[in-house]
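Request: Could I get any protein with tokenized structure?
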Amino acid sequence: MTPVAPLTLVVGGTGRVGARVVERLIERGGGGVRVMARDASSEGAKKLASMAGVQVIQGDATRAEDCARACEGTSAVIACFGAQRIARLSDVLAVDGSPEREAAHPRNVNYGAVETLARCAADAGCARFVRVTGMSVGYPAFDWIAVLLNVVLSMTIQWQLAGEIAIRKICREAKNGMKYVIVRPGNLSDDEECAKDETGNRRVLLGSGDAHVHAGKVSRNDVADVIVEALGRSQCENVTLSVAGSVTPSGGMRTELVWDPARGMHWQTVELEKTVSEGTSYLDDRMWRAVVPDSDELKPKPHRRYVAMFLALVAGISVLLANAAVSLARALFF
């Protein structure tokens, strides 16, 4: 294992994942940690600043000058921030991009700020750039989870994907050969660890590339472990990691929903990909043996199209229900 970077920048370090990352970096030793926080006077920022080896500076990831200043002298950058904005109809219908001009819009945070930070990291000569997104970023645009998240959270999955694409492009063009690590966790939990299985052992899954990993509940502690472990492992260069928990041993198998003309939609049991590992701890070296670099080209997906189709379907059903209600009222009272 390669040593942890002498100075690591964590953006989003006061968040529930970021704070755990900072703690683990300090526990591991070998270098200092710099945290860029939007409010350096917050309780979370003060708590981090009180830790030996942690420096907290004020800054906003949407501002290039703040990112450039924060990246100075660092060897690795960890970006574990994201936008949480409830959607408005204009997010889907607007063609002039007006809602996306808001500072807190996912376009400006999950994409714009990530692109800015990655570019500043490359300019500063950083060796690694780690970004935390979500497992739904790898889902097809028509997947119901991706559609619902886009509907509720202002097209957040579309912009998370755009951020990942930007990171890959910047790393390809970086003169110093900066490498990226994308961490896509499943359903995040504040539990100390993932639920235990029937044998009394907890199960965690780690997949790389485009491997299919069920988005089971995973502890933020485990996600922090993955981030710090990946930062220090030589095989984690230009990789996308899917992280999840499982309440039962898989036996090397998984189920997936498939379609064929004869049977229609049905569940099918298939083997786990060779790039998926199952174990009880991400600190176990065996969990990382199957990790391979990304070989696919990440491209934009038609998220907005399927969100529009979903909203049209909801509107159509609403009209039918309203008409049915009016007809029933007329039959009963007129």
